[in-house]
Specification:
By secondary structure, the protein is an alpha/beta fold. The chain contains 9 helices and 17 strands. The structure holds adenosine-5'-diphosphate and magnesium ion. Adenosine-5'-diphosphate binds next to loops.
């Protein structure tokens, strides 16, 4: 039976930490990423792709600020839509070029995705997710006053230690989920819910974008449910999740059951904002009824699918 896989790409799939984010750099990374995705396609999987957008939306925020004297700056939900298009374009073009070379004839398309969140999500009262550039105290206070931004100190010392923080509400469901599922059923490779999707709330029976950022792994999991994926594959920059992360006795996890994953998650082995949401997304996927969740690095994707490495999480 054909298996359906949802692949969640981490930041390093598009931009390396040390890079500035030039178009050449990003296409170079995307090429490497698409080589791995091509191998997954060649193994017969039906593929749905999601991805992060942190560095891209950060750069776009700087462009909004710097260009605001000339053209009106756009809010975060619109920037989310812009980066979904930007990254989707790079992925779909590269993937099409690679498939063409291999004689694989599969349509690829990006869907700009809104993701519903609860308007009373507790995170709206207490935003913590840093976005965009670092500011000096003076700049921070100005932004607080003029734009009503929530600003937090994010580094203990230095010159630019302040950043804007926004809520990171829990995703409920992708609004375009049904459209995406029908596309996947029709044999289309879909790129969707990029950057965690555009957060929208329902107010007086209408959808409305909000200035917030949804975790891309948690949003990817909601999409995995809607498309009825068999496998949830989280590709990041580490080969395996670790127990006792950062401690002298840290230890890679090869396999965990759902119950073990929940226990380790509760015990705090996986940091919030990075590995934490990945493991939580895997837990949710298995609880929903998915077969298998895997966390590994981009370059180990195939080895991990073949069971040779990665952290594997299954019901039992
Ligand atoms: P991505 O862009 O792929 O989402 P993140 O930086 O959000 O990447 O998450 C991957 C990072 O999670 C790793 O590089 C590591 O620094 C961090 N991390 C936190 N807890 C753990 C853990 N228990 N095991 C492994 N990595 C962890
Ligand atoms: Mg992350």
């Amino acid at each position: 039976m054909v298996k359906r896989i949802l692949v969640a790409l981490g930041g390093n799939a598009i931009k390396q930490a040390h890079e500035k984010g030039t178009v050449e750099e990003q296409f170079r990374n995307v090429k490497t990423t698409c080589k791995h995705l091509l191998e997954i396609i060649k193994r017969g999987y039906e593929l749905v792709i999601t991805h992060g957008n942190g560095p891209q939306v950060g750069n776009l925020m700087i462009q909004q600020e710097e260009g605001s004297k000339l053209v009106p700056p756009q809010p975060l939900d619109v920037l989310g839509a812009m980066t979904q298009g930007q990254i989707g374009y790079m992925l779909q073009q590269t993937l099409i070029n690679y498939m063409e070379k291999e004689g694989i004839n599969k349509p690829v398309a990006t869907v700009v995705t809104q993701v519903l969140v609860n308007r009373d999500d507790p995170d709206f009262q207490d935003p913590h997710k840093p976005v965009g550039p670092f500011y000096t105290l003076e700049e921070a206070e100005n932004l607080r006053r003029v734009k009503n931004y929530f600003i937090r100190k994010v580094k203990p010392s230095g010159g630019r230690v302040y950043r804007r923080v926004v809520p990171s509400p829990d995703p409920v469901k992708p609004i375009e989920g049904e459209a995406i599922r029908r596309m996947v059923d029709a044999g289309i490779i879909v790129i969707a819910s990029g950057g965690g999707g555009i957060p929208v709330i329902e107010a007086s029976n209408a959808l409305k974008g909000v200035e917030a950022v949804i975790d891309k792994d948690l949003a990817g999991e909601r999409l995995a449910e809607v498309v009825k994926a068999d496998v949830f594959l989280v590709l990041t920059d580490v080969e395996k999740a670790l127990l006792n992360y950062g401690k002298p006795d840290e230890k890679p996890i090869d396999k965990m059951t759902l119950e073990e994953a929940k226990k380790y998650y509760r015990e705090g082995h996986f940091l919030p904002g990075s590995m934490g949401p990945k493991v939580l997304a895997c837990i949710r996927f298995l609880e929903w009824g998915g077969d298998k969740a895997i966390i590994t690095s981009l370059d180990k994707a195939i080895d991990a699918l073949e069971g040779k490495t990665g952290t594997h999480i299954a019901k039992r």
